[in-house]
Amino acid sequence: MKKTGSLLLMLMLLSISSILAQNKSSLGIKIGMHSTKLSVPLEGEDTDYLSGVHVGAFYSMEFGKCRLQPGLIYVRRGGSKTVQNVAAIVTTQKIEQRSKLNYVEIPLELSYKIVEFEKCNIRLSAEPYLGFALSGKFKSGDEETMIKIGEENGAINGDLRDKNYGVRVGASLQFGMFEPYAGYDIGLGDVIYGPSVAYSNGLYFGLALHL
Fold this sequence. Notes:
Blueprint: H1 2-22, E1 24-40, E2 45-46, E3 50-63, E4 66-84, E5 94-116, E6 121-140, E7 143-146, E8 163-174, E9 178-187, E10 199-210
Antiparallel strand pairs: 1-2, 1-3, 1-10, 3-4, 4-5, 5-6, 6-7, 6-8, 8-9, 9-10
């Protein structure tokens, strides 16, 4: 039994080594823009889109036409909306409210090469991710307050949950070390505490550099 177990372990290690030897791997960095909004489907409300940034690093492993790409990325999310100024009831004065939410995310991109040319190729990708909240700010007019993380104390604007998750779907065009990409970010986790459920969705685009 011991010999059989040792043999199976050796075969597994050889198989893993063979797969890793056949793959084309590289480290890289990516930087781009996120344009997100906060959706509250139960109340039928969405905020307007708010521009943010994302920047991070990844490790890319290619297996034929398939690619596996884990990474670590900073993302700024949020949303904005214009509301009636409650301090000016007798007027039509309105103010802008903005929520800026900062996360560090761990994505795992799974992509497939659908078209291959001599010097470039086109890929479709799906990228599930898990995010951890770093900080949040809520600005109403000229007043700005910090959003507490991981607490539920009945705040008017709701407190920020410490975790978020979702999936990004998109496409990219790779030529050499450069790979511009774009897609849609689908938030699947409620980002705030409170009676409402809010999801962070939006567009993203950027450039990946394979080093």
